[in-house]
């Protein structure tokens, strides 16, 4: 005998459930109760017919009684997990015992529930089982996506924001247009620059990178433009700068927002004239190099402060590639994590194949302030420590394992759980700033207030702001 609830599948459905119990009244009662709790329910009193349904229909979870005359729930669970290992099975019985529970789990059951049970408790178990199944499917799909990804290294992702990045990269890679890559620290700006070089017609030339914040002004000028013998103390021989060394290839100017103001006119002239003049020389050297700049700072804001030339910004920002923070990329976290697992497992000769579902859930709820770089370090650590073939929750750092997602509770039944209006405002402001990567000018615009008002409120919340930000 088969049956179904009166509810049909909707966009708010918590999952499609197959009930298997030889007691028809039990099926009808449980099916009705779960339907009222937004599940789509189908039931069968014959286990063999239930197995037939699994061949032709898709379900998110199976609920099976333990004791049935034709085939018991343990045997049914074994059959289902053998044919559909992706499908969680919840075994239910009125004759609960520790041995029965162990037997069910060994047969592959997701959970073991004893009668009588609360409908709300059962609904919560089934909702978790359904989410567990979908997350496992997502992990498997992402593993396939890793193998199919056309970009190399850590430049992987399927989120809408990353697809926009890929689209821009595909269109500009083969041109010589100057590109400005923006994004928070750790988002992979140098990787994007390297990929633009690899996909360009200059890929047989050198890819040369320099961090403009990592050296003093005098040394940076010499590194970029070169110098002649005797141009300064210790200049015993003439030396070509990176512009000349990168001829025929690509030069990445990382952390361009930290370039000293005094050097910016010389960089602008090099970009405009396609020549450089080494320190101590009166002769110009022609250059044939594509320039890519990268920064984690808001250059428009630096222009307003007078610490970055507006004409240089226009020259660098012919094409902008904005890399989104990892917290805004959804399931890309799992895609990247799988890539890192495979990379580090190979390097360390360990048989680690992937990530458990509970660990994947932790990775998805963590906010990743250090972005892709932090995720990479997290997975490297986990691969080193794990004693299993998949990363578990226990292998993750404390900061990830114990992280609790920040939410403003507005629908709490207990009035004592409701936050104050001031606390709601603080959390919302912090969430907006996080979403725009710390860009307070943009955050103020979204919030509909001026920057000075935003800084005053941040100071009230105990968030330090610098004097330069207040200007």
Ordered list of secondary-structure elements with their pairings:
Elements: E1 2-4, E2 16-20, H1 24-35, E3 40-44, H2 47-56, E4 61-65, H3 73-83, E5 89-93, H4 98-106, E6 111-114, H5 119-148, H6 160-172, E7 179-182, H7 189-198, E8 207-211, H8 217-225, H9 242-245, E9 250-254, H10 264-273, E10 275-276, E11 285-286, E12 290-295, H11 299-305, H12 310-316, E13 319-322, H13 332-348, E14 354-355, H14 357-365, H15 371-385, E15 390-391, H16 398-401, H17 421-435, H18 440-447, H19 451-460, H20 467-470
Parallel strand pairs: 2-3, 2-4, 4-5, 5-6, 7-12, 7-13, 8-9, 9-12, 14-15
Antiparallel strand pairs: 1-3, 10-11
Helix pairs in contact: 5-13, 5-14, 13-15
Q: Sum up the overall morphology in one term.
A: elongated
> What about the largest sheet?
6 strands, mixed
Radius of gyration: 30 Å
Q: Which fold does the CATH topology of the largest domain refer to?
A: Rossmann fold
Could you name the CATH class of the largest domain? Alpha Beta
Helical percentage: 40-55%
Any idea what the CATH architecture of the largest domain is? 3-Layer(aba) Sandwich
Gap between N and C termini: 76 Å
Task: State mean pLDDT (0 to 100 scale).
Answer: 84
The number of strands is 15
CATH superfamily of the largest domain: P-loop containing nucleotide triphosphate hydrolases
Provide the low-confidence segments as ranges. Answer: 6-11, 406-414
| Approximate strand percentage | 5-15%
Order of neighbouring strands in the sheet with most strands: 1-3-2-4-5-6
* Individual helix count: 20
Structural class: alpha/beta
Count of folded domains: 4
């Amino acid at each position: 005998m088969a049956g179904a609830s009166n509810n049909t599948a909707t966009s708010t459905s918590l999952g499609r459930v197959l009930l298997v119990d030889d007691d028809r009244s039990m099926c009808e009662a449980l099916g009705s109760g779960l339907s009222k709790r937004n599940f789509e329910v189908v039931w069968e009193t014959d286990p063999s017919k239930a197995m037939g349904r699994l061949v032709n229909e898709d379900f998110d979870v199976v609920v099976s009684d333990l004791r049935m005359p034709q085939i018991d729930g343990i045997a049914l669970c074994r059959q289902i997990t053998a044919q559909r290992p992706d499908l969680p099975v919840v075994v239910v019985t009125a004759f609960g015992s520790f041995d029965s529970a162990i037997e069910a789990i060994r047969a592959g059951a997701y959970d073991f529930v004893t009668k009588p049970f609360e409908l709300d408790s059962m609904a919560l178990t089934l909702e978790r089982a359904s989410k567990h199944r979908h997350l496992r499917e997502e992990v498997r799909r992402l593993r396939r996506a890793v193998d199919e990804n056309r970009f190399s290294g850590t430049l992987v992702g399927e989120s809408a924001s990353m697809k926009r990045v890929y689209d821009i990269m595909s269109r500009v890679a083969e041109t010589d247009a100057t590109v400005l890559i923006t994004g928070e620290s750790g988002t992979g700006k140098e990787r994007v620059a390297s990929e633009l070089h690899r996909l360009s017609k200059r890929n047989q030339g050198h890819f040369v990178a320099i961090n403009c914040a990592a050296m003093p002004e005098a040394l940076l000028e010499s590194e970029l433009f070169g110098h002649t013998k005797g141009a300064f103390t210790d200049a015993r021989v003439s030396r070509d700068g990176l512009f000349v060394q990168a001829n025929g290839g690509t030069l990445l100017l990382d952390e361009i927002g930290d370039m000293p103001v005094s050097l910016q006119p010389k960089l602008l002239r090099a970009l405009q004239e396609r020549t450089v003049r080494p320190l101590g020389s009166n002769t110009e050297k022609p250059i044939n190099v594509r320039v890519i700049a990268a920064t984690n700072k808001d250059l428009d804001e630096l222009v307003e402060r007078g610490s970055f030339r507006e004409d240089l910004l226009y020259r660098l920002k012919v094409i902008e590639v904005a890399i989104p923070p990892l917290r805004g990329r959804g399931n890309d976290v799992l895609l990247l994590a799988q890539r890192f697992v495979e990379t580090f497992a190979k390097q360390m000769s360990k048989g680690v194949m992937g990530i458990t579902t509970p660990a994947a859930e932790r990775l998805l709820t963590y906010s990743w302030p250090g972005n892709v770089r932090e995720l990479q370090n997290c997975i490297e650590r986990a691969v080193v420590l794990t004693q299993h073939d998949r990363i578990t929750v226990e292998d993750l750092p404390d900061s990830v394992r114990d992280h609790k997602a920040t939410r403003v509770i507005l629908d709490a039944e207990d009035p004592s759980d409701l936050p104050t209006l001031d606390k709601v405002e603080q959390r919302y402001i912090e969430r907006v700033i996080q979403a725009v990567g710390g860009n307070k000018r943009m955050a103020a615009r979204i919030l509909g207030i001026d920057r000075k008002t935003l800084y005053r409120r941040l100071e009230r919340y105990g968030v330090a702001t610098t004097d330069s930000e207040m200007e």
